[in-house]
Amino acid sequence: MVEGLNARGLGGFIDIDYAIVRGLAYYTGVVFEVFDRSKNERALAGGGRYDKLLSLMSDGKVDLPALGFGMGDVVLANLIDDVPAAAAQRDAWLKQERACDIYVVVAKEERRSDALALVQQLRDAGQRVDFPLTAAKVGKQFQTAELLGATRAVLVGDEWPQVKVKTLATREEILVPIGEIKTALGQ
Description:
With 187 residues, the protein is of the alpha/beta class. It is 33% helix and 20% strand. It is built from seven helices and eight strands; from the N terminus they run αββαβααβαβαβββα. Strands 5-4-6-7-8 form a five-stranded mixed sheet, sandwiched between helices. Strands 1-2-3 form a three-stranded antiparallel sheet.
């Protein structure tokens, strides 16, 4: 294994450590951990070989060798924050990308299932859509929409089976029958 890494020019990036223990009984071979060069954080990722796991999980129906790993999102976020060039790339990407196009505001909790159906319909049409996971005041939901960079909000409330479509930049609102929502949103 080490010879193969050396042949690929990766030998300088590995340290053999026979003390690493992954702690799960199904590993059958090499285990590994991935660190940043400074090793200021705990492992970014860790994993290893588990050649009998698929056989174990499939009651012997599938017997293939395997390798897997898991990554730590908090550790990765810390590393990005610690590397100015990486943080700059993340920030530039976030400025150009919105978290969502449309935010569905649930103005009346009794309409949450209708709002969720609308969210799914808009997502199926290729829109990036977000909504509140729990009950929240309408004003707070509009704040969240703006924080996420949404260009429009769709308010589901007392007007049902119509919804209000609000363009967040201009504050312009129109009332739209639910059956015409895709057309109103330019779908």
